[in-house]
Amino acid sequence: MRIGVPKEIKVHEYRVGLIPAAVRELTAAGHQLVLETGAGLGCDFDDQMYERSGATILSSAEEVFAEAEMIVKVKEPQAVERKRLRPDQTLFTYLHLAPDLPQTQDLIESQAICIAYETVTDRNGRLPLLAPMSEVAGRMSIQAGAMCLEKSRGGSGVLLGGVPGVESANVLIIGGGVVGSNALKMAVGMEANVTVIDNSLDTLRHLDEVYGNRIQTIYSTRDAIERCALDADLIIGAVLIPGAAAPKLIGADLIKAMRPGTAVVDVAIDQGGCFETSRPTTHADPIYLVDGVVHYCVANMPGAVAKTSAMALNHATLPFVLEIANLGTIKALQHNPHLFQGLNVWRGMVTNEHIAQQHGFPFAPVESSQLSLNTH
Fold first, then answer.
1. What angle do helix axes 131-148 and 178-189 make, rounded to 10 degrees?
2. For 14, which of 3, 226, 242, 306 could close a Cys bridge (C-beta 3.0–4.6 Å)?
3. Tens of pLDDT along 235-262?
């Protein structure tokens, strides 16, 4: 298969779809790789490293899209990239379609086969291609929150871990999954007072067993969220419904009631955000204030640590890229039910029920056995 990797063009996105080590594995398996020049520079991978791994370097993204049967990216295709997709071409990347109607419409019109990292599953029902970036974002959320608490950023001027004689900051983490547990690890390490809210008692039991009396675990109710939010210095939004828009767990009225200088970090912003006052920001301009509350809502947090993030992501995606390349997209989708769960748009049809409901499109419950074989 001919696989293409364009340079990411989202603002301050430095990751790359395939690192040189992954390219070498694919070329060793007999596949052709074409990369846009400079695609890996944000991760310190230059064109020569890719050429040594067996790739061909092309001068523009237009050439990459024109030549490739499958496009491998990191972030959702931007408007100009979506116009380059063609019928039956495979797109394999993060999509996050639930909060993004224009992208959904464009992918439908493209007639391409669009597989989203964030809805691919494993045998335990987990999300193996979302997990690496969730780990990074969870750990970064505490760094970002600590920055937002600085007085120069509009924060309350509280140090997360305090100092001898001065109490630590109160950190509230809403959601105890991959993002939340990684945020928790960092917050505990920085000696903050941490409370985790989740609607899974099993999750709360596990965290309580790991951290004991170093944290508070509370079952998620509206009352619990409101009570803890009003007492928090920093709130991390770490909730996820796979493929669907994030629930709004903290409304504008509650934001208004918080102490000025409170900081909120919405890691769920890719899926629309879990705070009513959230709107996507970039690394170029990451924060804004609403009613005195500092909001950090960067939609590609792991992009700031591009090399670590790209390597972690590739370790998870490479087996699926190889499977698609070796078998062809259709046979790979038919053979692997976990990859099939990643299929969001199929030749002009929305095949993810959450996305169809969110945007009012007809839901096409395509079975893997119904996929046509008259393509690559």
1. 40
2. 306
3. 999 998 877 788 999 999 999 999 999 9
What Å distances lie between residue 20 and 124, 159, 188, 376, CA to CA?
A: 30, 40, 36, 25
Amino acid sitting at position 255: I
314 backbone dihedrals φ, ψ, rounded to 5°: -65, -35
CA atoms within 13 A on the CB side of 210: 14
The boundaries of the domain holding residue 320 are 2-119+306-370
211, 188 Cβ separation under 8 angstroms: yes
Q: How far is CA 62 from CA 33, 68, 110, 141, 359, in A?
A: 15, 10, 15, 35, 29
Q: Is residue 71 part of a domain?
A: yes
Residue 130 lies in a domain: no
Which residues fall within 8 angstroms of residue 173, CB to CB, at 6 or more apart?
A: 180, 183, 184, 187, 194, 195, 196, 197, 235, 236, 238
Q: Could you tell me if residue 200 is inside a domain? A: yes
Q: What is the pTM of this model?
A: 0.86
Per the structure, the count of domains in the chain is: 2
Predicted confidence (pLDDT) per residue in 156-175, tens digit: 999 999 999 999 999 999 99
Catalytic residues: 96, 270
For residues 151 and 253, state if they share a domain.
Answer: yes
Domain termination site, one of 274, 299, 324: 299
Contact indicator for 211, 299 with CB cutoff of 8 Å:
no
Phi, psi of 197, deg, nearest 5: -115, 130
Tokens of 122: 């494993």
Task: Please give the backbone phi and psi of residue 59, each rounded to the nearest 5 degrees, phi first.
Answer: -85, -15
**128: in domain:** no
Tokens of 321: 């890229």
Question: Alpha-carbon distance 186 to 143, whole Å?
Answer: 8
Do the strands 293-296 and 287-290 form a parallel or antiparallel pair, or are they unpaired?
Answer: antiparallel
Q: What is the CATH number of the domain that holds 101?
A: 3.40.50.720
Burial (CB count <10 Å: 0-12, 13-18, 19+), residue 369: exposed
Which domain-ending residue is among 247, 275, 299?
299
